[in-house]
């Protein structure tokens, strides 16, 4: 799609030409891709929006697009998914760029492995797909905090998605790094990126009129030269537009298309209509049904062949380590008052983003425990569970005790909202003080349980014991999934287990909860290896006898949404 070459010529001319090129690169400190425009004189206009049609250079261009989020698909499956997209007759890939994954700690960037954005974009080009990039910084995308890194919330005055200085300074540093990778991949530089989105659905938020112009300028100042787009739903369309940027629409049904097109034409000059998002699914919530959008009976072509699935032998965990025994291998933070996750002095000062956090302090009397716990806190006296605190339950009775007793609260971060006006209010853990009756509790030991691979490496193998008949919870369980032949995709079913997280070969497979709707966890075959595969389960309440493997997913009771 954007290959170029130099013809070889005999004699000294070849050596002289190479010397000139190399000298130019060295003196200007340029990447070879920055030379592409010198040879690609026909790539001057790029994608433009006419009165009725899009144009790519001098030709009418129809955009048939679909989304694949590289960070959600095992890298080993990128090509399979992109080829299936191409086989559907699509010519354009859209993808978000998740800031929280690429800069998990302030100033420390990760574009490796499953986060190799450049490799993903180049693979799309190789397959014959153009790319519309949606770099945010906020992306919604049903991802934690809409893709914004949680360390931003260490600033107690933080105003996300505004021109608040603390936010724009962080965005500027992120964009400095990100755009240096993106710029060479643009169409006018010989790459596949034909358009770039400015933020995401800001019209529904609309907190700061200066914010979207700031993001537009931030992109342009860093070398973005392709067509710029906004993307809004019907509620935010009129407020999300900015001058010089093409407005696109997000919708859920074909019936909305005409009214949104009319709205666009009433506030903007005539322009082609582009649907950036056509929602084919909807959210599931714990304890609810599996929601499916009604397709209104529209006939669909047969889907392409799926990758083969496999049912493996059931796995019975062999080893066990209670959370209370595991604490001896962790370093607690001591603090006079509770500290929320984002403000924890861990991860080189960047706080804790995900997982659990455990608070410990001693008490000497019964009473009513009060406080704000985000999102769900299991309360213990020593190792005995006495109940839960969450958004609805802000107090719990602490029964009669004698002497000094350890009060513990294990708080789970169940995910920061990705959309809505309360995005600034997404700090996790214990928020503010904890009170026993009217007295604030003090002198806490706080454990960061972010459930990363590095956490499990602290649990020496000789410290695990055989699974007892009556385990003490919460606890970690260790077992092995045996794969005898070439690994294939499968689905894990945790029948009899109540609530926790599963890890395969150090990778976080996801949460499970027996209230559903989903009953299985998808396990990519690319994450398995022939032979023994390590399985670690963190279970909060009740363990089952084994973990089953099935070749069919169970997503819960279907509910069609009209």
Description:
- This protein has 562 residues and is an alpha+beta fold.
- It has 3 domains: 45-282, Glycosidases (TIM Barrel), CATH 3.20.20.80; 331-451, Sandwich (Jelly Rolls), CATH 2.60.120.260; 458-561, Jelly Rolls (Sandwich).
- 18% of the residues lie in helices and 28% in strands.
- The chain is built from 11 helices and 31 strands.
- The strands form 7 sheets. It has a 7-stranded parallel β-sheet with strand order 4-5-6-7-8-9-10, covered by helices on one side. A 6-stranded antiparallel β-sheet has the order 23-12-24-29-26-27. The chain has a 6-stranded antiparallel β-sheet with strand order 13-22-14-19-16-17, with no helix packed on it.
- A hairpin with a 2-residue loop joins β20 (429-436) and β21.
- The longest helix is centred in the first third of the chain and has 18 residues, at 165-182.
- It is globular.
- Residues 1-41 have low confidence and may be disordered.
Supply database-style keywords.
single chain; 562 residues; alpha+beta; TIM Barrel; Jelly Rolls; 3 domains; seven-stranded parallel sheet; 11 helices; globular; disordered N terminus
How do the strands and helices of this protein lay out in sequence?
Elements: H1 12-28, H2 36-39, E1 47-49, E2 54-56, E3 59-61, E4 65-67, H3 78-87, E5 92-96, H4 99-102, H5 117-127, E6 130-134, H6 165-182, E7 193-197, H7 211-221, E8 227-232, H8 237-240, E9 246-251, H9 255-267, E10 275-278, E11 290-293, E12 319-322, H10 323-326, E13 333-335, E14 356-363, E15 367-374, E16 376-381, E17 384-390, E18 395-398, E19 405-412, E20 429-436, E21 439-440, E22 444-449, H11 453-456, E23 465-466, E24 475-483, E25 490-493, E26 499-504, E27 507-513, E28 520-523, E29 531-539, E30 548-550, E31 558-561
Parallel strand pairs: 4-5, 5-6, 6-7, 7-8, 8-9, 9-10, 11-31
Antiparallel strand pairs: 1-2, 2-3, 12-23, 12-24, 13-22, 14-19, 14-22, 15-18, 15-20, 16-17, 16-19, 20-21, 24-29, 25-28, 25-30, 26-27, 26-29
């Amino acid at each position: 799609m954007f290959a170029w070459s130099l013809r070889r010529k005999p004699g000294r001319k070849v050596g002289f030409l190479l010397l000139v090129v190399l000298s130019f690169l060295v003196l200007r400190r340029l990447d070879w891709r920055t030379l592409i425009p010198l040879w690609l004189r026909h790539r001057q206009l790029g994608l433009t929006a006419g009165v009725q049609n899009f144009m790519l250079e001098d030709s009418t261009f129809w955009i048939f697009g679909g989304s694949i989020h590289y960070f959600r698909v095992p890298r080993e499956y990128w090509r399979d998914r992109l080829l299936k997209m191409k086989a559907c007759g699509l010519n354009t890939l859209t993808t978000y760029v998740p800031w929280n994954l690429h800069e998990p700690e302030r100033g420390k960037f990760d574009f490796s492995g499953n986060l190799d954005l450049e490799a993903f974009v180049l693979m799309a080009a190789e397959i014959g797909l153009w790319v519309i990039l949606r770099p945010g910084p906020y992306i919604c995308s049903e991802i934690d905090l809409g893709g914004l890194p949680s360390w931003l919330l260490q600033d107690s005055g933080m105003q996300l998605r505004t021109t608040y200085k603390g936010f724009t300074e962080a965005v500027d540093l992120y964009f400095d790094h990100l755009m240096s990778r993106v710029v060479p991949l643009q169409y006018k530089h010989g790459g596949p990126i034909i358009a770039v989105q400015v933020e995401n659905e800001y019209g529904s938020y609309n907190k700061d009129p200066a914010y979207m112009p700031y993001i537009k300028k931030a992109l342009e100042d860093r070398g973005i030269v392709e067509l710029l787009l906004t993307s809004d739903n019907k509620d935010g369309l009129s407020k999300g537009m900015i001058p010089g940027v093409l407005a696109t629409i997000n919708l859920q049904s074909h019936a909305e298309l005409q009214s949104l097109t009319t709205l666009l034409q009433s506030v903007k000059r005539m322009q082609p209509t582009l649907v950036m998002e056509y929602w084919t699914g909807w959210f599931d919530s714990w304890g609810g049904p599996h929601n499916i959008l009604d397709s209104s009976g529209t006939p669909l072509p047969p889907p392409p062949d799926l990758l083969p699935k496999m049912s493996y032998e059931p796995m019975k965990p062999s080893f066990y380590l209670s959370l209370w025994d595991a604490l001896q291998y962790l370093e607690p933070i001591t603090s006079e008052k509770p500290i929320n996750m984002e403000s924890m002095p861990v991860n080189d000062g960047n706080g804790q983003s995900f997982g659990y956090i455990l608070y410990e302090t001693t008490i000497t009397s019964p009473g009513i425990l009060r406080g704000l716990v985000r999102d769900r806190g299991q309360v213990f006296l020593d190792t005995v569970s006495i109940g839960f605190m969450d958004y609805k339950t802000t107090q719990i009775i602490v029964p009669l005790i004698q002497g000094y007793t350890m009060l513990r609260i294990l708080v789970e971060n169940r995910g920061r909202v990705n959309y809505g006006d309360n995005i600034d209010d997404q700090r996790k853990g214990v928020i503010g003080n904890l009170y026993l009756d009217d007295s604030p509790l003090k002198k806490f030991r706080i454990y960061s349980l972010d459930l990363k691979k590095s956490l499990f490496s602290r649990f020496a193998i000789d410290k695990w014991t055989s699974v007892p008949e009556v385990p003490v919870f919460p606890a970690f369980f260790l077992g092995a999934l045996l794969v005898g032949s070439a690994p294939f995709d499968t689905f894990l079913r945790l029948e009899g287990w109540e609530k926790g997280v599963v890890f395969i070969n150090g990778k976080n497979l996801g949460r499970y909860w027996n209230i559903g709707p989903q009953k299985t966890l998808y396990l990519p075959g690319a994450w398995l290896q022939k032979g023994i595969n390590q399985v670690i389960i963190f279970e909060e309440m009740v363990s089952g006898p084994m973990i089953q493997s099935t070749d069919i997913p169970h997503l819960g009771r279907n509910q069609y949404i009209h």
